[in-house]
Specification:
Blueprint lengths: L7 H22 L4 H20 L3 H10 L3 H8 L1 H12 L2 H4 L7 H17 L3 E5 L6 H4 L3 E6 L2 H7 L10 E5 L2 E7 L15 H12 L3 E5 L6 E5 L2 E4 L3 H13 L2 H6 L40 E3 L8
Parallel strand pairs: 1-3
Antiparallel strand pairs: 1-5, 2-4, 3-4, 5-6, 6-7, 7-8
Helix pairs in contact: 2-3, 7-9, 7-11
């Protein structure tokens, strides 16, 4: 067999790219109504090939007539899938540094949900994906694929919800999965006052660059884990400021910055004693011990409270 190109590896590359294209297309329409249309389209193509092979004049005339409009028909039939595929392509880590999504409206919904959960003392564990993918942890839970809203997050963590155990994982403006299992940190320096949710939050932050929010079920205290460090007993304003700071960090800046021992980089200054935080001040699994009322606590890599 004579290769099409002078260099045979270009033929292999051509076959590989076509195979990947068809594979991704099949994965895209799998389990959707478009799968049936995709099968119908393949049947028409096979009929056209058979008509040419056996010289079926009438069938070949019909298929040739469809050639003038097949591209338009394809775009109309598969418009949602094509938009979804292009959006997914633009969200890959290779293009995130060029196109940065507007995360701040989503953070506002998350903060509103966390505030409501803290007032009700409903435990919560929310992981917000950044540059490092969390697909391995998404697969441990149940897929949701819904737009982020405060009402949805509050509903997911309500005690009567079948998905309230485990973590919710967010990606950009979507709730990807709920009831996910996160790795517990094995750091022996973790304070004994931190519960399982906080250990899971620290464990995920050690393995990825995700921002993980915890709401204590016992005290309603709000915490944020990031890069192996955790800040506890944050107010609504402090939570919003910390999330905005984290999502402003670019990968190249993050590579040059290492968390200081005893606190996370760029942590907000301590609130004065007696200042209102909007969260309960009593101890529990969600709050550490040893800080004054309204004073946010900081732990490095899940360690003991900073002095």
């Amino acid at each position: 067999m004579t290769p099409v190109h002078h260099f045979w590896f270009l033929d292999l590359l051509d076959i590989f790219l076509v195979a990947v294209l068809f594979y991704r297309l099949l994965i895209l329409v799998k389990g959707t109504r478009s799968a049936q249309m995709y099968v119908g389209l393949l049947v028409i193509v096979l009929v056209g090939i058979a008509a040419r092979e056996f010289d079926l004049i009438a069938v070949k005339w019909i298929v040739d007539g469809l050639k003038t409009v097949w591209l338009i028909v394809f775009v109309i039939l598969f418009q949602p899938e094509l938009r979804h595929a292009l959006a997914q392509f633009g969200r890959t880590r290779y293009f995130r540094s060029f196109v940065r999504s507007d995360t701040y409206p989503v953070l506002g919904e998350v903060v509103r949900a966390v505030e409501s959960l803290a007032e009700r003392r409903h435990g919560a564990l929310i992981a917000i994906e950044r540059n490092v993918g969390l697909r391995n942890f998404v697969e441990t839970g149940r897929r949701v694929d819904a737009k982020v809203s405060a009402e949805l997050l509050v509903t997911l963590f309500s005690p009567g919800s079948p998905l309230h155990d485990g973590a919710v994982i967010l990606r950009e403006d979507s709730v990807i999965a709920a009831s996910c299992i996160l790795p517990l940190s094995s750091n022996p320096r973790i304070a004994t006052t931190l519960g399982t949710r906080h250990r899971a939050a620290i464990g995920l932050s050690e393995e990825s660059d995700a921002a993980v929010i915890v709401v204590s079920e016992q005290s309603g205290a709000i915490s944020v884990a990031y890069r192996g460090g955790i800040q506890s007993r944050l107010s609504e304003g402090e939570l919003r400021s910390e999330l905005v700071r984290i999502f402003r960090i670019r990968p190249e800046e993050e590579a040059r910055t290492s968390p200081a021992q005893g606190e996370m980089p760029g942590a907000p200054a301590r609130a004065p004693a007696g200042a209102s935080t909007g969260a309960p001040t009593e101890g529990g699994s969600g709050s550490g011990a040893g800080s004054g009322p309204g004073e946010p606590e900081r732990h490095a890599a899940g360690g003991t409270p900073a002095a």
